[in-house]
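Summary of Year 1 activities. Much of the first year was spent building the evaluation harness for sequence design. The harness presents a backbone, in tokenized form, and records the residue chosen at every position. We chose the following record to illustrate the format because it has been used consistently in internal testing since the harness was completed.
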């Protein structure tokens, strides 16, 4: 486990250029929750990431839904919620609610509650609901641990790229999610489930660098700093904790805890182990269709497919239901036994 890496120094330099000294100084706040909020400040410039690339999203759609042009939200509703009405859903760590707004348009939910600790992100979503006639959307700027939600009150609990920000995943899934989810309700995730604090094993970093070497130098200039990306070193734990103490704090527990406490209805690994790390900060070179970059992306996808033949996926779409033993345990807890 590395405390500090060269990538950390490059990243800090990039953040200084991109987001200013004030953002860097915000990381010296002793309150971890405030550092987490600043990491998701919507006023800040966004980095260049793989999920901004249309071909990457089409690849993930194919791996999850079987159709490169069908997003997982539509697939979820068609397969698990078709014909249903009046459902209640809650999303934890919803950010700007992009995925929740999509689900709201399907007509199966009477109420969608979005919970996040950053008011600016929720305000961004609020600004869209009137024009899109989505009156069923509710927004709570709250810490999940401070909420007092009624038992068995939701038909679906939803996490998109947020569950990996919570500590003690087994307790969260048991005492909070399990308590508010109805007996026949669904827990849906689209999540990073890899190593805690992004502390990737050496074999993964070797494969990432193998992929990076496939990309010509002119496409390896970082958006954040202008520095050429020659090698992937990974993140040090010191910067991870300083930048956002919630980032991947207990991510490796997600799948084991889900398998222990819930019935797995579906689990779709969609990789990300190599592609996301190779393209971090240089993805802007690949967002437009370019005869030079399209074959490069295909080479990266083929390399990741080869990697996934041996190693587990870092990202998973999953649909789960409370197991009978979990429901019985929660009933005993609610009865004080």
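For this record, the design step produced the sequence shown next.
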């Amino acid at each position: 486990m590395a405390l500090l890496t060269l990538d950390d120094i490059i990243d800090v330099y990039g953040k200084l250029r991109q987001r200013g000294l004030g953002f860097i100084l915000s990381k010296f706040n002793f309150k971890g929750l405030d550092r987490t909020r600043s990491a998701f400040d919507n006023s800040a410039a966004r980095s260049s990431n793989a999920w901004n690339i249309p071909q990457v999203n089409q690849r993930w759609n194919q791996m999850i839904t079987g159709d490169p042009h069908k997003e997982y939200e539509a697939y979820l509703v068609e397969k698990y919620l078709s014909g249903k009405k009046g459902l209640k859903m809650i999303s934890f760590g919803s950010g700007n609610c992009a995925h929740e707004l999509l689900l709201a348009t399907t007509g199966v939910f009477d109420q969608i509650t979005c919970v996040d600790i950053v008011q600016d992100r929720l305000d961004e979503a609020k600004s869209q609901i009137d024009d899109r006639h989505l009156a069923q959307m509710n927004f709570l700027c709250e810490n999940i641990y401070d909420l007092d939600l009624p038992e068995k009150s939701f038909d679906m609990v939803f996490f998109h790229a947020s569950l990996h920000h919570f500590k003690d995943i087994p307790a969260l899934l048991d005492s909070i999610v399990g308590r508010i989810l109805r007996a026949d309700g669904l827990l849906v995730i689209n999540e990073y489930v890899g190593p805690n604090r992004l502390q990737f094993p050496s074999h993964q970093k070797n494969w990432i660098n193998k992929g990076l070497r496939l990309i010509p130098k002119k496409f390896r200039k970082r958006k954040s700093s202008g520095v050429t990306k020659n090698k992937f070193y990974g993140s040090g734990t010191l910067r991870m904790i300083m930048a956002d103490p919630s980032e991947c704090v207990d991510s490796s527990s997600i799948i084991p805890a889900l398998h222990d406490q819930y019935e797995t209805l579906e689990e779709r690994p969609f990789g990300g182990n190599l592609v996301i790390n190779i393209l971090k900060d240089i993805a802007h070179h690949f967002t437009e269709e370019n005869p030079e970059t399209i074959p490069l992306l295909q080479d990266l996808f083929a390399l990741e497919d080869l990697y996934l033949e041996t190693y587990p996926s870092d990202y998973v779409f999953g649909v789960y239901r409370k197991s009978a033993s979990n429901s019985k345990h929660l009933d005993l807890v609610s009865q004080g036994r």
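The chain has a mean pLDDT of 90. Quantitative recovery figures across the full test set are reported in Table 2.
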